[in-house]
Amino acid sequence: MSKKLYIKTYGCQMNVYDSVRMADCLAPLGYQSSDTPEDADLVILNTCHIREKAEDKVYSDLGRIRAEKQRKAANGEKMLIAVGGCVGQAEGAEIIKRAPYVDMVLGPQSYHQLPEMVTRAIRDGGGVVELDFPTVQKFDLLPEASSSQGVSAFLSVQEGCDKFCSFCVVPYTRGAEYSRPMAAIEKEARQMVAQGTMEITLLGQNVNAYHGEDEQANVSSLSDVIARLAKIDGLERIRYTTSHPRDMSDDLIAIHGSEPKLMPFLHLPVQSGSDNVLKRMNRKHNAEFYLDIIARLRKSRTDIAFSSDFIVGFPGESDKDFEDTMKLVEQVQYAQAYSFKYSPRPGTPAATDDQQVPEEVKDERLQRLQALIRHQQTVFNKSTVGKMMTALLDRDGKHEGQLLGKTPYMQSVHVQGNEGSRGQLTEVRITEGFMNSVSGEITGTQPHLRKAN
Ligand code: 5AD
Ligand code: SF4
Prior knowledge:
The protein has helices spanning about 15-25, 50-75, 85-90, 95-100, 115-125, 140, 170-175, 180-195, 220-230, 250-260, 275-280, 285-300, 320-330, 360-385, 445-450, and strands at about 5-10, 30-35, 40-45, 80-85, 105, 130, 150-155, 160, 180, 200-205, 235-240, 265, 305-310, 335-340, 390-395, 400-405, 410-415, 425-435, 435-440. It is of the alpha/beta class. Among the domains are: about 5-130, Methylthiotransferase, N-terminal domain (Rossmann fold, 3-Layer(aba) Sandwich); about 150-265, Transcription Regulator spoIIAA, CATH 3.30.750.210; about 390-440, CATH 2.40.50.140. The strands form five sheets. The protein has a six-stranded parallel sheet, with helices on both faces. Strands 15-16-17-19-18 form a five-stranded mixed beta barrel. Strand 18 and strand 19 form a beta hairpin. Helix 10 packs parallel to helix 12 (about 285-300) and helix 13 runs parallel beside helix 14. The model is unreliable at about 450-453 (pLDDT under 50). The structure holds 5'-deoxyadenosine and iron/sulfur cluster. Iron/sulfur cluster binds next to helix 7.
């Protein structure tokens, strides 16, 4: 008998990928994915612990789902609630103490144990917690991917992080760096392409530190993975995220210039433009090192554009340090960027630093930085007006006949669709640029289809 499964995903793309794999894992038990928690037999919150806000959201959502569980119970029906992801890993059984209606808590390394956990929760009435970092990697134990993610899809190649930036929970919640073997990655990519995927984003918390083994047990780099996947017919676009500047190796920089399927857009977080702050963050690079990597990437691929992450109000950040961040942003000229106020995370070194920055100072700095970033995004989007680009049109827009997709630069593009352009890689001319998107017009050719003929 079919049962309803609702998964809510918070946070990073790694979680988006993990949610797909959890659904795959539960399909043999008869669970079918649903878009709403109403009437669900199993609700999984795949959580994020990166900043306090993300965590607070989980607890407020849990309250709402509890009401649904009670409503079902009044009808004599059962709903199981699981908290997975990084809050699950970080807080473990504490979650069940705080929210006793939660039946299961599990960390990101334990998803392959979900079917057994669900069986136990049904049998024993909840209280099931799995937080192990097993020696056998979860990727080997998860079922082969079955559900199609669509024309643009994520593929995890690496997990965990050994960098220990002093603000970040990832090394604690996701554990040590692990790279999947090349053969497993290629096999999964081929399956995805066979199901219609045209764009793959290779994922990892520190993806460019990839060092998996190939069939001859030689250590491969991320550029080897890219080169291998680029040979797959039907796969048209490759991206990867998230990278650390320290791991931007020569071969990876070089492949940006030589592999046309690798998109000319890179998310390369710098966090701060101040050497003082970067040192306190334990980033293992200074501003000059980062700017040099940017310059080398621009030399390798002249039309590349960048995005980044920034933290403002890190402990000890002075006015001058913040100005250094603004200066770096001016120097790079980003196409896009994300910025956050520093949020102390329990268990990380920076959380107990005695030079915390007052909230109002953080607010003010964030506003200034975001205004500059918004300006740069607008400038970038307007600079693409008149250009011909391919757009992967994967969604319907709000208006009749409108299609939405992404340009090579990850710009959201909207066009008036024509018969058959949905789900296709289509050539468009950019006609207008805004702060968060561009509009375009279809010029009639569909490179993907044309190539296949
Ligand atoms: N406070 C604020 N931002 C953070 N990030 C990671 N940890 C914190 C924190 N404690 C940001 C970083 C990272 C992005 C995913 O989240 O900028 O690159
Ligand atoms: Fe966190 Fe990224 Fe630093 Fe790793 S490299 S500790 S994931 S911010």
